[in-house]
């Protein structure tokens, strides 16, 4: 019968270092691109709200713009934080 210590023998494992799928040298450019796209969508959203009458606005367009903008801004901020050296 095997004991728990034999089942959890970590000396037999080969540890492989983790390699990120995205090279850290690209974090700055990715942060800039994601934040730029988020800014463009937010600008379009603001212009859309200012130029349209309340009755002419579409809730679907507003929600799509808000979700897309927040997703791009979120990824942009994550890459910006990682670029500065704070790994999440």
UniProtKB/TrEMBL annotation:
GO cellular component terms attached to this protein's record? oligosaccharyltransferase complex
Topology within the bilayer = Multi-pass membrane protein
Its Gene Ontology biological processes? protein N-linked glycosylation
Write the record's keywords in alphabetical order, separated by commas. Answer: Membrane, Transmembrane, Transmembrane helix
Tell whether Transmembrane helix is among the UniProt keywords: yes
- Major localization class: membrane
Q: Key word Transmembrane present in the record?
A: yes
Query: Which compartments is it annotated to reside in?
Result: Membrane
Pfam families in UniProt: Ost5
Which chain regions cross the lipid bilayer?
30-51, 63-86
The organism's superkingdom is given as: Eukaryota
Q: Which InterPro entries match?
A: TMEM258/Ost5 (IPR007915)
What protein family does this chain belong to? Belongs to the OST5 family.
The protein's job, in short, is: Subunit of the oligosaccharyl transferase (OST) complex that catalyzes the initial transfer of a defined glycan (Glc(3)Man(9)GlcNAc(2) in eukaryotes) from the lipid carrier dolichol-pyrophosphate to an asparagine residue within an Asn-X-Ser/Thr consensus motif in nascent polypeptide chains, the first step in protein N-glycosylation. N-glycosylation occurs cotranslationally and the complex associates with the Sec61 complex at the channel-forming translocon complex that mediates protein translocation across the endoplasmic reticulum (ER). All subunits are required for a maximal enzyme activity.
Complex and partners: Component of the oligosaccharyltransferase (OST) complex.
Q: What is this protein called?
A: Dolichyl-diphosphooligosaccharide-protein glycosyltransferase subunit OST5
Quick one: which gene encodes this? Contig2429.g2618
């Amino acid at each position: 019968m095997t004991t728990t210590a034999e089942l959890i023998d970590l000396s037999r494992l080969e540890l492989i270092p983790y390699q990120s799928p995205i090279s850290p040298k690209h974090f700055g450019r990715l942060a800039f691109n994601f934040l730029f796209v988020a800014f463009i969508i937010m600008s379009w959203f603001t212009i859309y709200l200012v130029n349209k009458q309340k009755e002419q606005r579409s809730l679907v367009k507003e929600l799509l713009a808000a979700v897309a903008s927040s997703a791009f801004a979120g990824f942009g901020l994550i890459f910006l934080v990682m670029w500065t050296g704070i790994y999440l």
